[in-house]
Amino acid sequence: xxxxxxALYMPGANERALEKAKTLPADAxxxxxxxxxxxxxxxxxxxxxxxxxxxxGEREVTIRVNGLDTEWHDADLRAAAQAGxxxxxxPKVNSARDVHNIERALELGGASEETKIWAMVxxxxxxxxxxxxxxxxxxxxVLVMGTNDLAKELHAEFVPGRAPLLGGLSLCLLxxxxxxxxxxxxxxxxxKDVEGFEAECLQGRQFGFDGKTLIHPGxxxxxxxxxxxxxEEIEQARRVISAFEDAKAEGRGVATVDGRMIENLxxxxxxxxxxxxxxxxx
Length: 282
Ligand SMILES: CC(C)(COP(=O)(O)OP(=O)(O)OC[C@H]1O[C@@H](n2cnc3c(N)ncnc32)[C@H](O)[C@@H]1OP(=O)(O)O)[C@@H](O)C(=O)NCCC(=O)NCCSC(=O)C[C@H](O)C(=O)O
Ligand SMILES: [Mg+2]
What we know:
The protein is 47% helix and 16% strand. The chain is α/β, with parallel strands linked by helices. The protein has 2 domains: 6-227, TIM Barrel; 231-281, no CATH class. The structure holds ligand LIB3CWND and magnesium ion (MG). The site of magnesium ion has 6 residues, from helix 7. The site of ligand LIB3CWND has 23 residues, from strand 1, helix 1 and helix 7.
């Protein structure tokens, strides 16, 4: 299991941030050529970012290219295919056909099979097509929520608890789980609001997201903490597995731990918790 608790965006035009990220403990990095880069800096940012892909050690390094309907998209994908990041992050993916076009462009650009597609889902159409997007390709491994664009398109307001966005978040989560893909939550814009940020991480985790996308180094530590299993959860997972093993040895398919029923499905959850804990240790 590959931990994706935290994925930090870095503007591709910001040399200082790109340098600083070499020492930041985010699980994944998203070198951004889209929203955070002004039009007249797109080409220099593309060159810089593609040259930096190998500079961040073990972490998963991805490149966010410009959207399919922009003048920069084709050149971004060609350059990314050659640079060989862990994934290209493509904004505003709206259909299976979009995914197929990205896949074809990567193949034509000579991308290695190791370079995956992370599709950003951030429009009303994408919410309604989430399953076909997620299922469109084996190369597509991760869905990434774009909650700023989604709120804009919905004419929704940002409110604590994100009630206006919950329908879209749920549809994308259902699509990710139905197709066996990883899914990352959207960004939290107020980089000074630590409490609000942590509450949103917790909400994302409780919903079932695998991790969250971030915009500032200060968001990494709380995000990694919230999305990692706690010592109590690890201990509980071990107890669940052990109680079920004992029950099975006695010919029973059900056990209890602290008065709660344990069946095979709870064991699968416990195994997932332990797998993530081990991946984080290792
Ligand atoms: C949000 C920011 C503009 C805040 O910038 P600033 O006020 O300059 O931050 P600080 O002074 O607190 O920075 C402290 C140090 O940290 C470095 N830094 C800041 N941000 C990053 C980063 N993202 N990665 C790496 N390093 C970073 C600064 O350089 C300072 O370093 P030092 O000088 O050594 O102390 C800024 O944080 C920022 O630009 N964030 C990223 C914005 C971004 O990428 N936006 C696009 C992605 S989000 C998106 O597109 C949403 C999605 O599509 C949707 O629809 O929802
Ligand atoms: Mg967006």
